[in-house]
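>> received
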Amino acid sequence: MTNEWCGWREATERALYGPDDGFYTRPGGPGPAGHFRTSVHVSGLYAGAVAALLRRVDTALGHPDELALVDVGAGRGELLTGVLAVLPGEVAGRLRPCAVERAARPRDLDPRIDWRGELPAPGSVTGLLFANEWLDNVPVDVVETDADGVPRRVLVRADGTERLGGPVDGADAEWLRRWWAPPPAPDVTGGTASGALPPGLRAEIGRPRDEAWARAVRTLRAGLAVAADYAHERGDRPPFGTLTGFRDGREVSPVPDGSCDITAHVALDACAGPSAERLTQREALHALGVDGRRPPLALAATDPSGYVRALSSAGSAAELTDPAGLGGFGWLLEPVGGACAGLLAAGGA
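>> returned
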């Protein structure tokens, strides 16, 4: 790691994906599960829900001879492994599971899973592309308003020290104008100063994520692309940004030296294409049959072991659909071709 000043996008790229000492690409590292729990790690119910969605896609596409499931940001292949375990044999026999991940292929991974370091070619995939907590790890630059309210790029060194750089311009400035709506600065009379921004506001420029998601969607010839991530909406962006770090299961300061995960919430509304649908994870999982209701107590008398299993499943489902936690995540659904539009239209609160 170098300790020279650079933007957060460049620093994060090196810290997470450096070939020898990147947080995710370091040989022998534990992968995401060693540092934080995603929905995939909470319960097999999540893989079951993705499998249910895959079967809806399969039906909508007329049961093609080859059905793809592309897992973007695959970690150590846990989601694909879970989906393969619950698919009926007829569907599994046609499935072409593909993990897209910049880390090396794990040992003992199911040989049916194709492991690659980059997205498939444009227009080469028919099926479901699923990206669970991938976009939040696509590196982005950070900006902060200076004493005059001018958004400036935040520069950082490997030890986490920051300073303000030059004003934001070009495509990044245009992205901020369109997608970032911070409150104006108050004036001395108690009103607001037209167009003025308070100092110290921070934002992450999501343009690289918009572009990454568009590339992912373009891999589909026909089917459905889904991104699931923690997100915010225009007009409700956190005023001081969301950049943070994770290490060993704890939230820590984001230091770009390869010692921790570096992540920030995703502006999924900016990523969305013209045909996109957006749901909360709670709505999406309910539509796919994941329900956190407790089993009837009478079951404990007739089938005690079944009651315990059902109670455990309900607890996991409740965690996955909790609106104050994972259930509040955003799901962005992007159909390619008309057949896969509205597959979760029955989602409820």
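>> The mean pLDDT is 89.
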